[in-house]
User: Which sequence fits this backbone?
């Protein structure tokens, strides 16, 4: 993979492509999982930086990175993005991506999700019921239900079929895939969690509160507080670090505002960690 001068964008793009698929090893959905395994063949210089700067929100940047990936892989052709499915003036939903896969010789409708979850389960919960966003919103089980009942079915709606056929594509020959990229974080004291429905490869680190963060042996570490758009990146590819006092100074107002924050840590021995400092 070729690099650009903007090392942060390099890290975001490659980091996004490397995030594992949450359901790649299970059959939670009736559709196939889509993997971005050919990331080594991508050129970051292919990105339209002016367009990227327009996308401030992480979800839109994830779509931008996926579009660039699909356009650079040789066996994917005719990539359509963000197709709005409407009934008259009412928007029913969106097809994230529609493209032709030459290897499989079929059109693919791809739904993309990119999420961050902390574990809040117990013995009475399935692992799908146990994951929630770091600000205690955005539950995984709710998202799975929405995907099953609406997002993964919209391609078969009459309105979507009309839209697809307006592109001279046979709507009956389209296969829906899902790419559910996720990073998972466990409680600090949790070890050996068994996951039955979600991919353990998605586990990135731990989560803990601000008081626990302050108890670290901070003289032995360097820190970085990534902006939200950088959350898809990897700490080992980062290059700017600061000491504990600067990290504490940056974290404190976010915690006061009840905004959980990703934290990257680097030890003197060259080990890297990615965690969440939660406000609750």
Assistant:
């Amino acid at each position: 993979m070729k690099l650009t001068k903007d090392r942060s964008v390099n890290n975001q793009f490659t980091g996004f492509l490397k995030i594992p698929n949450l359901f790649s090893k299970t059959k939670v959905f009736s559709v196939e999982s889509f993997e971005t395994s050919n990331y080594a063949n991508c050129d970051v210089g292919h990105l339209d930086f002016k367009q990227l700067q327009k996308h401030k929100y992480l979800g839109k940047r994830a779509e931008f990175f996926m579009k660039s990936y699909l356009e650079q892989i040789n066996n994917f052709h005719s990539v359509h993005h963000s197709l709005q499915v409407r009934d008259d003036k009412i928007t029913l939903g969106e097809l994230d991506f529609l493209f032709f896969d030459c290897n499989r010789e079929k059109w693919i409708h791809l739904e993309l999700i990119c999420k961050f979850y902390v574990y809040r389960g117990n013995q009475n919960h399935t692992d799908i019921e146990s994951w929630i966003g770091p600000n205690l919103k955005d539950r995984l089980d709710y998202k799975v239900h929405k995907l099953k009942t609406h997002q993964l079915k919209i391609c078969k709606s009459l309105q979507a079929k009309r839209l697809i056929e307006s592109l001279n594509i046979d709507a009956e020959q389209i296969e829906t895939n899902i790419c559910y990229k996720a990073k998972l974080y466990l409680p600090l004291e949790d070890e050996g969690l068994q996951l039955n429905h979600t991919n353990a490869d998605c586990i990135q680190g731990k989560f803990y509160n601000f008081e626990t963060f302050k108890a670290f042996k901070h003289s032995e570490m360097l820190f970085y507080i990534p902006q939200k758009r950088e959350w898809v990146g990897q700490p080992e590819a980062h290059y700017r670090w600061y000491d504990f006092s600067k990290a504490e100074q940056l974290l404190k107002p976010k915690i006061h505002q009840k905004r959980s924050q990703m934290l990257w840590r680097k030890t003197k021995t060259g080990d890297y960690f990615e965690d969440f400092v939660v406000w609750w």
